Amino acid sequence: MEKKIPEFRTEEEEVRFWDEHDSMEFIEELEPVEIELSPELEDKILSKRELKKPITLRLKPSQIEAVKKIAVKKGLPYQTLIGMWITEKINTENMNY
User: Fold this and answer.
1) Rounded to an integer, what is the distance from CA 5 to the centroid of its chain?
2) Over the stretch 18-33, which tens digit does the pLDDT of each residue have?
3) What Rg do the C-alpha atoms of the chain give, in angstroms?
4) What is the pTM (predicted TM-score) of this model?
């Protein structure tokens, strides 16, 4: 059953709703939005972006397929999802030390 975004009476009600729900549950109802950034803001964002370095990581085909399926459900490229998981684990481990 597809979930529907409710009508909100107040901004506080809407904030509470989105704090308690994942927007991916309502992906079919959401529409993409085009935004324009000022050249200054775009330069500022890009200058703070970390450059990424490619690596080779050997995974079982079944692992790759499982990650790809999860990534599709989340609407992400699978490499991005793997990177997010690595970042989450690094942050968890750093909190333990």
Assistant:
1) 20
2) 988 888 888 888 888 8
3) 18
4) 0.51
Tell me the CA distances in angstroms from 81 to 34, 60, 76, 88, one per residue in order: 23, 17, 7, 10
Q: Could you write out the three-class secondary structure of 55-84?
A: CCCCCCHHHHHHHHHHHHHHCCCHHHHHHH
Enter the tokens of residue 58.
């050997």
Output the furthest CA–CA distance in the chain (Å, rounded): 51
What is the DSSP annotation of 18-45?
A: HHHS-GGGGTTT---------HHHHHHH
Answer positive or negative: Cα dihedral of 8, 12, 13, 18: positive
* C-beta atoms surrounding 79 within 10 Å: 13
In angstroms, the CA 39 to CA 35 distance is 13
